[in-house]
């Protein structure tokens, strides 16, 4: 009987199953030595296209609940790949930032990864959101902002410490601004509202938030203020 993946998705070490025959064809894409190459490229490359492609490959390999996705999520942690991907969130190339965000979202399905990403990547994720005092201000596309919001939500679901970190890094201010400013798209408003609802779901955070002046209504979706500049375009909200 083949070796089974441990049932605990947060287990610190998950070894790839031993192969009895050499990997071939598409199987080569998800062998441990190839995962190490992706991580090496993420750490060493200075070329945006390579960084984007490497993060994108990791995002795809970690998607869903297939067996090797679980191994790869664990391997990325063991090989210190999480911090390399989190560092890409500060990259000048928006395409690299978006690819890194997507990779982190899928990596956070692993509970131990979720904990580590919550500690170390939330500040950089928040910095990429519109608004706030940073200079120069980030001016990322709708798709990238929605990706970052979805990643933040994935990281803070069932992760109180990450939700606290979001609050500490002025994330609430930026989320409420997206929700209420009137100049963000409906997709951005929906994604921000989902994060705010997740935060408000933590009863432990309500009193501290109220002391800071926030109200329950700040954490509810506010589509009446969404920008209508999209024309007749319809968007796929299936990921929200």
TrEMBL record:
Gene3D superfamilies: Leucine-rich Repeat Variant. Keywords: Cell adhesion, Cell junction, Repeat. Pfam families: Arm. InterPro entries: ARM-like, ARM-type_fold, Armadillo, Plakophilin/d_Catenin. The keyword Metal-binding does not apply. Its main location: other. The keyword Repeat applies. ARM repeats lie at residues 80-117. It is found in: Cell junction. One of its GO terms (cellular component) is plasma membrane. GO terms for biological process: cell-cell adhesion. SUPFAM superfamilies: ARM repeat (SSF48371). Belongs to the beta-catenin family. This is CTND1 protein. The lineage of its organism: Eukaryota, Metazoa, Chordata, Craniata, Vertebrata.
